[in-house]
Amino acid sequence: MSSASKPAADTARQPGWRQELPRLALLLVLLFVARSSFANHYVVPSGSMQHSLEIGDRVVVDMRAYGLRLPITDTVLWPTGTPQRGDVAVFDSPLDGTRLIKRVAAVGGDHVRLRGGRLWINGRALAGLDGLEEHFQHGHSQLDLDAGGGPDIDGLVVPAGQVLMLGDHRGDSADGRYFGLVPAQSLYGRATAVYWRSGEGLTWDRL
């Protein structure tokens, strides 16, 4: 073989970009499915969850918490859990479809009272002595009442399969007091931790 023919032979052995397209497409599909079905992230757009979440916080969202879904649909392929009081969850507003992040304040069967921004569930006050920290079975929330408590709730019984979503900044949160209850199965996932915060950079604050 002459030296002039070697470059052509080497080029023929190298895969062209067209041959790589199927592999690249498969990789992108797998990444999309993983992000849609297993884990995602969310950037907090407002102060409605202060002081638990601040504007600009980036949070990790466990998309498996309440069920494995068919990508880009609301179809649950495999239920994996149910929302619990105190969960910080991501869902779409029943009013306009805006993606929101709020706290699960009450679940099906709960009797709810909200006065001055403070919760009573089934007759039990969730706030501690200082009135600014609410204690749930799996953690706690730090309330922000600098804008008051917002609208009160009295005598609400949450139907089975529904949840009441509230913001921790009770006087400045467009939440379930305005758009009503949310089907539990419509919650996309549970926020598990803040991984980046303005002014601090990378962090890991569990929710």
Describe the structure.
The protein is an alpha+beta fold. It has helices at 6-13, 17-37, 176-179, and strands at residues 39-43, 58-62, 68-69, 76-78, 88-92, 99-107, 111-115, 118-121, 124-125, 133-136, 139-142, 153-157, 162-166, 182-183, 189-197, 201-206. It has 2 domains: 1-37; 41-206, Ribbon (Umud Fragment, subunit A). The chain has 3 helices and 16 strands. Strands 1, 2, 5, 6, 13, 14, 15 and 16 form an 8-stranded antiparallel sheet that branches. The protein has a 4-stranded antiparallel sheet with strand order 9-8-7-12, with no helix packed on it. Strand 5 and strand 6 (99-107) form a beta hairpin. The longest helix has 21 residues, at 17-37. The radius of gyration is 23 Å and the shape is globular. The chain starts with 5 loop residues before the first helix and ends with a strand. Mean pLDDT is 83; it is low at 1-5 and 26-38.
